[in-house]
Design brief:
The chain is an alpha+beta fold. Helix content is 18%, strand content 32%. The chain has one helix and six strands.
Length: 95
């Protein structure tokens, strides 16, 4: 039986994090943060959006990030540039 809702989202988050940590996705684990139910500001909507699972990709010594998210309507992954304005803490500040 397939998992639904939050338990499935957490399973996806954990699987993506494990794949990053293992080097399977070609992403430096020190420069990536996988989040569940992260909140981001949307200029287009002029409101906060909450993602099911997001992957934030940071560049060394940069505070802004790019993030990957699943588009619920198409099932495809989207890459979007984010602003530090309303962003969660960067990887270096999570320690």
């Amino acid at each position: 039986m397939a998992k639904a809702g939050a338990s499935f989202e957490i399973e996806v988050r954990d699987h993506i994090q494990a794949s990053i940590n293992a080097g399977d996705l070609g992403i430096d684990p020190a420069l990536a943060v996988v989040r569940h139910k992260a909140k981001y500001w949307s200029d287009k909507r002029e409101d906060t959006i909450i993602t099911d699972v997001s992957v934030e990709l940071y560049r060394p010594k940069q505070k802004d990030f790019w993030w990957l998210r699943s588009a619920r309507t198409t099932g495809r992954w989207l890459l979007a540039r984010a602003s530090p304005k309303d962003a969660p803490p960067s990887p270096g500040s999570l320690e």
